Each structure stands twice: as structure tokens, then as C-alpha cells.
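Notes, p. 3: input format for complexes.
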Amino acid sequence: MIYTDGSVFLLQGRTYGYAIRVLGNGFLQHLYYGGKVSRCDLGLLAAMGDTTAPGDDINMDMAFDGMPGEYGFFAHGDFHDPTAVFVRSDGAAVSRLRYKSYRIYDGTARVVGMPHVRKADKTLEITLKDDFSDVEILLNYTVCDDSDVLVRNAVVKNMGKIAVGVKKAFSFCLDLPNGEYSMMRLAGTWGRERCPETAPIAHGITRLQSLRGASSHQTNPFTAVMRPGCTEESGECFGIQLVYSGSFAITAEWSRNAQLRIQGGINDVGFEWTLNGGEELVTPQALLTYSCGGTGEMSRSIARFLRDRIIDPKYAYSPRPVVVNNWEATYFDFDNEKLFPIIDTAAELGIDTFVLDDGWFGKRDDDRSGLGDWFVNEKKLKGGLNTLIDRCKSRGLKFGLWFEPEMVCEDSDLYRAHPDYAITANGVQPARSRNQLVLDFTRKDVVDRIYTAISKILAENDISYVKWDMNRSITECYSSKLPPERQGEFMHRYILGVYDLAERLTGAFPDVFFEGCAGGGGRFDAGALYYFPQIWTSDVTDGYERTKIQWGTSMCYPLSAMSCHVSVCPNHQTGRTTPLFTRGAVASLGAFGYELDLSKLTEEEKSQVREITRNYKRIQRLILDGDLYRIIDPFTRDYFCEAVVSADKTEAYVVGERVLCIPCDYNRYVYLRGLDPDKVYEIEELGVASSGAALMNVGLLLPKTADFGAWTWHLKAVEK
Ligand code: DGJ
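Output follows (720 residues plus DGJ):
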């Protein structure tokens, strides 16, 4: 809901309230963000706001250090890290934003060319006007009555005739009062993506960012700002994440009166966007999630929101195919003879789709050549893709194919014909990460060329699944086709090019399921989810490491978005051996599949795979639309446990794992979460029935398994 009397605006979602007011002198003051309040509380909020409202004195040095704002400006009394910086033609970058008008309309804000919230109830648009230039800033606030997520973004408009240089344009600015917050971020690297790290916020500027051209393995475009005492299960926190897959920044900064300013959007390092007269720059949407039920409730709210409003509705809640991918089975070394047994065994074991990974195209026997040549390598695959597809079909399997659309190898026909398609800066030796260069996706002709090549393969072959990979960061940030004054637009234009290709391919092939990937989980963000209903979570599939990676990823992404595979042991990345049952149980907490040569399994292992796959298909509905309860944290304990509970609380699926066993271990208990205390649940594996209250309060004995042993429990509510 959105209420206004023309000067005060109150936004309400399921559990939160958010209030803003226009002061008499035109400045926009943030009044409140937290648990739900009603219209009758606006007097109280306004009285509190009076203590920080700047007066009419034009000499307002420091006035804006204390006033909670909605969008910071630069060099005119607001000494925070600015939210936006724009430079007039005379070089002056001074700005002072005041309220001009508002409108409220149904639905979500218009965000052309970028992923965005697909549906919402109402949007409040407030227009601010700069005192010293022709720039206007539109602030959008989109609400959904049944959700805890408030959506924000900003649009910078040049209303004049002369060009303006935008040096920074963040999506939102949020001031939280009262001085005590800590911040959770999801940090990591390749193979250890999205490990939660919580720390108090010190003075100075805390900055989470990526400069890699992708949202990155290292820092996810997400933070949870937590009030004192906030835990997984209780207390207040604010989840903040960007619907954006490119280089981003999210910053936190204390103000003079112990107020915390959080803001974020497109990374401003090296950024500059020229806005000609009449043009506008639309910034990515940011999702602000309020929780008074700790980080657990925050994650559940975000997961529901992403499934309901960002992920393609055609796929969001539909069962995903159980796949077998040949990457770790063969790497580049395959031909039909090696792949047929994998396909045949997959069919026997109840698997739905065979996905052919890297190496099927051009001259691609290792990672030194071939990227960009999207035509089949007939030397390896005699008879082309059709031979493999026919084999799959004859066994009742569907077929999926790997692409890396944004890349090119110098040893490729594409590069030989169009060396200028690759990103290289004049006189700068290009970095050849993984022996490849990045295609200049700021150029429409390059995107068109790749679209034509990929769509030809998709149109000519019966392909139901695409894995879209991206295996290196952008290093040279330069386009030979952009004029010097527009080179600062490169990084944002690059990701717009990626979105353009994704939009066109998913639009032209609506029945093809697209999975995202970036050298493991290097582009796992809410923007990517708009096109890719699931994303490869990490190249590390070790049965223990994955508990941590998936725990962290679940902070702000739904289980159904996490692609999780069972691979062979010893694990290729860690060298560790874990039981097959454990690998299956951990992978079942996501979009499930295999990544090994099934034909090499023993008969006993095959029957286990058959059973694990059958179990997954039985519980998949919970992964698609259930609520996740994180119960035992593998980062701090030597156990791991999570439960997924159906919305009506009649069913639950629990997965647990013990890390290392210790001699003479004492009895330890797990207290389940999310159940209905008044319902009686039967636990299939234990053959017991207990009330939800007992399962949550008395708990269950943690199984004493061997090292890396796992267990699964199915709970079904029964008549009392
Ligand atoms: C990185 C991905 O994460 C892997 O799954 C695999 O597709 C390789 N790239 C192929 O090059």
C-alpha cells in the first residue's frame, strides 16, 4: 500500500513500513524504515524528523550530514559519499536536489534493457530537481502488499539541451538511525563462493564491490544489515541486494549522528556516462527486505520474492530436469563412443537430460582454442549433434548443450575473421585468462553475430537445455567503437549487451531452459536469475564443501535456483572422499543432477543412484516452493542441518551431515524448525511420530555417523 497526503508518503508491505516526507524547503527526508506502522503514526514520525530537518538557511554547511535522506547529492552540504555525481558542461559538479513532484501508479517501474521485477502492486515515483543544473532524478519505490521486499531504483534525466556527464548514479540510498548495526556479506573466491561473514561496521566507508564485469565469486551484490542481537532465528535485519550482474558497489558509512547510510548500484570506479539533452540513465533495481525474524526469515522472504516476481514464471515453480553433465566425466576428451554409455546408463537410472559441456564445437580439444566457433566439431562427434540427440531420444532423455557466448579464443575462425570483436585497449597487452579474450558486447554487431550463431544451433537441433558459461573477468575495459568520452560507459554497456543476448535468446526459444554459470558461481545474482531460473552454484561439488557454499548462497537465493550435482570421489577439486549417499543428500537441496561417468559406477552404486534420484523426484516439490530453515551452521559446528517445509506445514524434508566423528561422542540433539507445533509428524526413516512442538523443543538425537556421513528425514503430518 502507498498512502500520501501530498507531503508525507507511507509505504507498506507485508511486515514493514517505510516513510518519507517533503520538507517545507523542498528537501526529501527519510522518516522511517522498519516494522509495520500505520497512518496514525505519521505524526510521531514527523516529530522525530523535526529534530534533524535542515532549516531554510542557504548556508547549509553540514545540514545534510545529520538529516536522513533518500538520495544524497554532492558538494553542497552533503558530505557523505555521494549517491550521484553529475558534471555540467562548465565542469561544475555541485548539486542540491529538491522535491518537484510525485505520482503513484499500478505495477512496477519501467526498467528497459535490464532485468527487473516482473509484477508488483504499486509504484511511487518521486521527482527531484537539481537546483544548479537541468538534471532531474526520479526515485522509484515499488511495493507488493504480500511481500517483505521494497524495490527501489533511480533514473537520472537530463532535462536540458546540453550534455551532462554522470560520474556516479547509485540505485538507492538508505539512512538507518540509532547507531548499532553489523553487516553480513557473502564473500569468497572460486570454489568457495558466498561464505557469510558478519562484522561490525567501523567508521570510514565499508565497501562491497566487484570490478570484474560480473557480480563475481569474491563479493556477492548482497548485504544484510543487522540490528544488535539479530540471529538466524530472531531479531531485525535488512537484506539489500541488487538486480544486477555487472560491476557493482554497495557501501555503508556512518553519519554524524550515528546514522548508517547504505547505498549501492553500478560501480562508479571508472564509470562515466554522457547524458545528452533529453536522455536518461536508468539504474538497476535494488531489493530491500525487512525481517523481524532474523536472517532466516529474511532469506525466506527473498526466496519467495525472487520465485514469484523475478524468475521466469514459466519455470519458477516447474520441476527441473535431473541432468547428467559430462564435464567431470570426460573434460575435453570425448567422442560418441565415450558419451553413449553415459547416456545409456543415465536412462537406466531415471535421469531426464544429458548435458554436453565444453568441447563440442570448433577446434576445441583443450582450452586454448575454438571459443567463438559455434559449429559442431565433427571430428569428435561423428554425424554431428544429431547422432547424440538421437541416442538421447531413443533412450527417453532430453539433450542440453553448453555455450560460452561472451568469449573468443585467438585460435578460432571468429577471431581470425574479426580480431576487433575482442576487447583490447590500444597499446595494452591483453590478459589471456584461461587462454581466451572477452568479446566486446558493448557492440550490437558483435551481439548480433553471436545471437545468429547460437540461434542457428538451437533452431536446427532438438535442444531443451542450455548451460551459458562465462569463464573470465574483464580486464581491459575498452571498446574500439566507443568515442574517448564514452569509454567510462564500457562496463555497464557490456552487461547490457549480455542482457540483450539473453533476452533475445530466451524470447526466441521459450521452450529451452537456460542455466547460468560463470566458472562455477561467479555470476550468481538476482539479475542473472531473471534469465536463468537456475545457476551453477560452484565448481566445487565436494559433499562437505557444498554444505557451506549452499548455506551461504541460500542467504539470498532460493534453493531451486542453485544447481547442485553429485560428482565422483576422490573429489576432483578437494581430493576428499565422501559417501555417495552424502553427496546425493547435499545435492538434493537444490536443482539436482550428476557430473560423473555413470557407466563406470559399480552395480551397487548404480542402485544407490537410482534410489537417490527417485528420492529427489519425490521431494522436488519442496525444493521448488517450500521454505528453508537453516538449522546447524557448518561454518561454526561439526554438523550441518537444513530443513525445507511446505507452505502449509504438512510436509518437511531434512538433510543433515556430520563432518568428522569424535571418539566417545556425547549425545547431541537437533531442534527442528518451521513445523506446526500442533501437528503430529511421522518421520519415515525413524518410524516415529511426534508433535511439531516436540520436534522443535525436545529435538531429535543427531545420528552418530562416520566421517562425512549424512541422513535425510521425510516428515509428513498425520491425523492425531
Ligand atoms: C566452468 C564451469 O563451471 C564448468 O562446469 C564447466 O562448464 C567448465 N567451465 C567448462 O569449461
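The mean pLDDT is 96.
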